[in-house]
Amino acid sequence: MLKIGHRGAKGYAAENTLESFLKAISLGVDMIELDVQLSEDAIPVVIHDETLDRTTKASGLVEHFSATDLQSFGIPTLEQVFDIVNQKCSINIEIKNTKATQAILALTSAYIQTKNWQPTDFLISSFHWNELDEIATTQTLIPIGIISENPLDVTLAFAKKIKAHSIHPYFDLIDKADVQYMQAEGFKVYPWTVNAPEAIALMHAYGVDGIISDFPDRI
């Protein structure tokens, strides 16, 4: 079962920061999950929200600041994260802003072509299913994960359509039969965001393939 650190190790360090990703690696994660927006100068940066207000001391829209300015607020570029991870674990890139998609694909492609990274070092996921559909038609190497709160039959139909690698359901919306059904259809199951020890134990009992958690050491 994969240990997947949510926004790094959000339970121990500020989310989506270099510190958080290094903490997750120190906890022995198999994968980190992170969120990507696009800076004013079209560089993919790692932050969940469209604005700076919740997670930094600054305010305003992410897309109104350069990557250099954002770094001064503690927001790393995606390239910085790739460099510190350095294949110590795989990286689940969640596309929050579809404007960032092409920059993300270009960066992952560059690391595969020039730095000997493997397509399986990455997993691209999103709630933006149309974007995942488009990615699936333009590249077939990097695995795709579908984040879903939709009914299982709808999710499975789309997963089959785009030949997804994994389905990422909200943990409280699934039961053991759902997990077994998704797996029988050929998909890995990575529920989010599972933090309470009793919920983690339940996911183990369901036999999921990996757990996304703020506390990956609990998995």
List the helices and strands and how they pair.
Layout lengths: L1 E5 L11 H9 L4 E8 L5 E3 L20 H6 L5 H8 L4 E6 L5 H14 L7 E5 L2 H10 L5 E5 L3 H11 L3 E4 L6 H9 L3 E2 L7 H10 L3 E4 L6
Parallel strand pairs: 1-2, 1-9, 2-4, 4-5, 5-6, 6-7, 7-8
Antiparallel strand pairs: 2-3
Uncertain segments: none
E-strand count: 9
| Radius of gyration computed on alpha carbons | 17 Å
Shape: globular
If you consult CATH, what is the topology?
TIM Barrel
Number of helices: 8
The portion of residues assigned to helices is 25-40%
CATH architecture: Alpha-Beta Barrel
CATH domain class name: Alpha Beta
The overall average pLDDT, rounded, is 97
Q: Gap between N and C termini, in Å?
A: 8 Å
- Which structural class should the secondary elements be placed in? alpha/beta
> In the residues, how many domains can be counted?
1
Give your account of this protein's structure:
This protein has 219 residues and is α/β, with parallel strands linked by helices. The chain has a single domain, classed as Alpha-Beta Barrel (TIM Barrel). The protein is built from eight helices and nine strands. Strands 1, 2, 3, 4, 5, 6, 7, 8 and 9 form a nine-stranded mixed β-sheet that branches. A hairpin with a 5-residue loop joins β2 (31-38) and β3 (44-46). α1 runs parallel beside α3. The protein starts with a strand and ends in a 6-residue tail after the last strand.
